[in-house]
Design a protein that fits this description.
homodimer; mainly alpha; 9 helices; elongated; DNA-binding
DNA sequence: CCTTCCCTAACGATCGATCGATCGTGTCAT
DNA sequence: ATGACACGATCGATCGATCGTTAGGGAAGG
């Protein structure tokens, strides 16, 4: 009954989370196992009994740590978006070329280093109630704006050359998001290698002069 | 209780399927409504009673047309993959440059014209039993190989210049897949415009000489 | 004593699926 | 033309299983 790798939503099988975000004890273990199960089967495809069994506890015990199943998902999505957005804000750069490179690097790194987290944050948001999803949506809008602004500034300075800014933004953003789906232990690249390569490809998309 | 557009898995709200694939009568209506519900909420997030209600029938009637809920999903995924793969095979081109342009065009067109179908085919495959998913997996492998072969041939002929063929393939494939998530009625582009623009971007990624 | 953590047991609701009955319709032989 | 019959579509009712969640208690450490 083993699901072949090709059929899974994600190729990665190592459950990783950003350091420092995991609570100690059972509460953290619930978050870890929920990340794995929600990434593999989706929020509605994993029951709280599946989650409890993976944690070595009974389903009722979950409610001593989280008020509802939805809150576990909300916490994972919050962690994923905060890590991703924090990386974007931390990405430096003095000119549009180096800023685009840095931002795409961090964007891809987030998806390659934490593929399960990115998958849950990106694909399970719809399972959240609108109230719990609201703070995440504003973070998302900020990330899009950040990328658009870099592209527009590069255009204004004559450093970039693209037929359409919006479509370049969706392409750069989209190819990076998709990394979470195929990056895994069997891939012969480090996350940094993928991030650097994708940053070069993003500069090509932007039509940057002297991309290297 | 309306879910804001930003939170949904897909921006599109028009339920479209390739012409000629929809059975007549109730059987086709079930397929249409299942496409909408599975795309919005995921396979496990939509119950057969939700589906029946959307069709204006009782849940028991569903089983007069499909032997199980899973078969409805399998049919949608099959349709999606056959449409997508058929497009790739139909994409012509005499040289690697024109072939890459044609293949990316069709790849993007499939995701922009049928966003719900692409979303279900790409993101709900894991909900299928391995036996029902098997035929789809071979189709997928064929599509990847087709793109890789074009890139390699372009490299061999000195027409392309990329740092890494595999990463270029994942980038081109990924940015196209992601179109299904954001393309919708509010977007001021036709599917053809998006497909043409993305084909240009793919040629930039491939490092094609004289991309325009 | 209180607090923390986890348990057993069970709640009502909903899940996917099955049952037999009914209805309309088309196909026969008479 | 007419009655007998078969058939696909749909129904109400219901199955056992599982869902998310709650109530209440036991055990360990301060």
């Amino acid at each position: 009954m083993t699901i072949p790798t090709e059929q899974r939503r994600i190729a990665a099988d190592e459950v990783r989370l950003p350091p420092g975000v995991l609570p100690e004890g059972t509460k953290g273990r619930i978050l870890r196992e929920a990340l794995r199960l929600f990434a593999e089967r989706g929020f509605h495809g994993a029951s709280i009994r599946d989650l409890a069994e993976a944690c070595g506890i009974r389903s009722a015990t979950l409610y001593a740590h989280y008020p509802a199943k939805e809150h576990v998902l909300a916490e994972l999505i919050r962690i994923g978006h905060e890590d991703h957005h924090g990386r974007l804000l931390r990405a430096g750069g003095t000119d549009p070329v180096s800023r685009l490179r840095a931002v795409v690097r961090e964007h891809v790194l987030a998806h390659a280093e934490y593929p399960l987290l990115a998958t849950v944050a990106n694909n399970e948001l719809h399972a959240l109630s609108p109230e719990m999803a609201a703070p995440v949506l504003s973070i998302r809008a900020g990330g899009r704006r950040l990328l658009i602004d870099i592209l527009n500034e590069g255009l204004a300075q004559g450093l970039f050359d693209m037929p359409d800014t919006f479509l370049a933004m969706t392409a750069i953003s989209g190819m990076g998001m998709r990394v979470a789906g195929w990056y895994g232990t069997g891939v012969p690249y480090t996350p940094e290698e993928v991030a650097d390569a994708y940053a070069d490809l993003a500069l090509r998309i932007a039509g940057a002069t002297i991309p290297r």
